[in-house]
Amino acid sequence: MHKFLVSSLFTLTFFWTNPNFGKSLDGLYFSEKLTTENGYLILGIEIFTEKGNSFYNAQELRFQKSRGWEEVLFVGKATKEGKGFLLVPEACQIRATDVWGKKMALLRRFDCDHLEFRLGLDESGFFILSESLLGTRKEVVLPYVLEHTVGNPVAVRFDAPQMTTEGIWGFHLNGLGERNPEWAWNPSKRNWEPFPGYQSKEGLQFYRWKRTFSN
After folding, report:
1. Which of 50, 123, 147, 171 has the greatest number of beta carbons closer than 10 A?
2. How many CB atoms lie within 10 A of CB 110?
3. Is the pTM of the predicted complex or chain greater than 0.85?
C-alpha cells in the first residue's frame, strides 16, 4: 500500500446536533473531488466536543499541475450559530511535496484567526461549507458523512493519474506502512464492512484502519 503520512493535531470524536432532526451526529464530512482552475481539491472536516466546547479540524488536499501536492490544515473553534456552526481557525499551515508519496514538508504557517467559515444544511439536507479553506471554491457541498470512532484512522481514495492505485489521504494517518485497511465504507448501507481489497468504483472510496500506538 502506498505510504503517506498525514498527522492530525487532535484525535477526538465529533459531535453535532442536527438542527433539523434533533439528534447527534458523529462523523467525518468530506466533499467530492472538486475541479479547480489548475487541478482539483478534496476537503474534509471533523468537529468534536471537549469539556463542553466545540472544536474542529479541517484538511484540504490540493493538486496543482504546476506545483504538485499541498495539504492545508486548519484547527479552531466551532460556535453554534442559528441552524449551523461558525468555524473560526486558530492555527493554520500548509505542507507540500512535488511527488505523491514523499513526506510533505511544512511550507508555511500563517495567521488565520481573522477568517471564518459557516457550516450548515441546504434545503436538500446536504451539509455545506461557505468556502474551501483557501477560498478557491464557494459553497462546498459535503455529501459524504461517515461514522467515526475516536482516533480511528480514516482515509479517502480517489482516481488520479498522479497517484498509485493505493494512494490514500485522510484523518489520523501516521505510520501505517504496508498495512491494508480493515474496513471499507458502504455508502448505500451507511456502515463499515470488512475490507474486500481495493476496487475500481466511481466516486470516492473510504477506508478505516485499526488504531495502533503509532497512529
Report:
1. 171
2. 10
3. no
